[in-house]
Amino acid sequence: MPRTIRIAAVQMITRPASLSERLARAETLVVRAAQEGAQLVVLPELFNTGYEYSDENYRRAEPLDGPTSTWMKQTANHYSVHIAGTFLRLDGQDIYNTLLLVAPNGRAWRYDKNYPWAWERAYFRAGNSIAVADTSLGQLGLMICWDVAHSELWARYAGHVDAMVVCSCPPAMHELIVVFPDGKRLRSGDAGPIMRHIKHTSGGVFSHCLLRQAAYLGVPVVNTTGTGIFSSAVPAPKTSVAVYTLARPDLWKYISQAGAVRVEAGCFNETYIADAAGRVLRRVPPEAEAYTLAEVVLADTPPQPHGKQPPFGISVLAYVFDVCANRLSSLVYRRNMRCIRGR
To answer: What are the start-end ranges of the E strands in the chain?
Structure first.
């Protein structure tokens, strides 16, 4: 028999803050949602730290039994609710961006982000598997952010899940602004035709692209994002600025000052719960640190997809840029891990 579950999707301001502050803010939202009858509360990606490109990310990484996962388990147990969210997990000599889903009884399921986006690879490694959480609510498939733009991951979940849980916190990089030390501001659309093409095709990743894939699977989906203004330095600044000079040679004069260059962007503000047909039931308003609650219907058995998997419509150049940035960023990751965390 089909059944219903009540899901809460939480949106948080992306600006970094201390672990204690971020967990306290998350707990306020979790408690309110649980009191309204939520059975599953989904927090954004890196909800415990906020999102920034900073060497502090190496120090913020925690073991699987660290303070964030301990808080998640204690809160889930106390309020009798399932909780999902991601944090930087230290595993031996490496860091992963891990989505942890915990049940009230303490049982937990883990998924490591398969596709770090561009500069993210400077702070954590890629995972290589999917995860289906066999919970009392149903079979829940797990994904993180840029993973949703990769068709093979959706195909691997097809026919095995009752619903999809996606934790995201993506800055709107297709509308990126590069801020130079002298105050010059370069918008992505001003960086040449390649960047304009990427901008034109990337705005719907977490709206219609994600919703079409979930509808192809025939399952409800919950997606969480950050909100507010993302502002950060960039890893490997000279290399990053040099990439822009390929389209704008006039920027070469800033190479010597690359360490003072910053990037800014808004957020996607795509925190919502959708039904199995890809129709959004409820969403959190832009710029609000808040949650929304909706009831979704799950099939009695994991549905099989019908028809052909829909295309994403994202420019292939976005994937090429991501692969190249990942390779460069992986060198930064290994060097900094040795310097900051020790050999």
So the answer is: 3-13, 40-42, 82-91, 94-102, 108-112, 132-134, 139-144, 163-167, 177-179, 185-187, 221-224, 226-227, 230-232, 262-265, 272-274, 280-283, 290-298
